[in-house]
Amino acid sequence: MPRRMVPAESYPLLEVFWTILIFFAFVVWIWLLWIEIGDILRRGELSGWGKVGWIVLLCLLPYLGVFIYLIAEHKGMAERTAARREAHRQETDEYVRSVASQLDPAGQIAAAKRLLDEGTIDQAEFERIKATALSS
Q1: Which residues contact 35 (CB under 8 A, 6 or more apart)?
Q2: CA neighbours within 13 Å on the CB side: how many for 48?
């Protein structure tokens, strides 16, 4: 038995737009829920019972709970996100500096010269490090 196609008149254009709007509202709600649960679980100053309370509220009153958390914690969420972003940037910058100084021949020679001046290495060791740095 062949399947019948649904005529276009039974699903008008405004219904399509309404369905798309509802779908995207649901996706935005899921996204906000994900962000808020992550924020709740990463909060160090909130006790375990406080975290459980917020998550229970988000589960029992899903839409209202999301909005309540946004209203109550909007400033704290922004500050915590900015602090995490800054800490991540500093870690990345420090890593790049450490790797760049290892790979940079001028940095290797400068470090070897500093060690030579301090008396940690002798002139022969300095020349070996210098030759190795210049050959790479």
Answers
A1: 77
A2: 0
Residue 10: burial class (beta carbons within 10 Å; 0-12, 13-18, 19+): exposed
Q: Is the Cβ–Cβ distance between 29 and 67 less than 8 Å?
A: no
Give the tens place of pLDDT for each residue, 59-87: 999 899 999 999 999 899 999 999 999 99
Sign of CA dihedral 73, 75, 79, 82: positive
CA-CA-CA-CA torsion sign (118, 123, 129, 133): positive
Q: What confidence tens digit (pLDDT) does each residue in 16-33 have?
A: 899 999 999 999 999 999
> What's at 81, amino acid-wise?
T
**Residue 74 and residue 94: Cα distance in Å, rounded?**
30
Query: If you ran DSSP here, which 8-state letter would residue 46 be given?
Result: S
**Count of positions (residues) in the chain:** 136
Per the structure block, which two tokens stand in for 105? 């021949």
Residue 120 structure tokens = 């940690």
pTM: 0.59
- Tokens coding 51: 């975290």
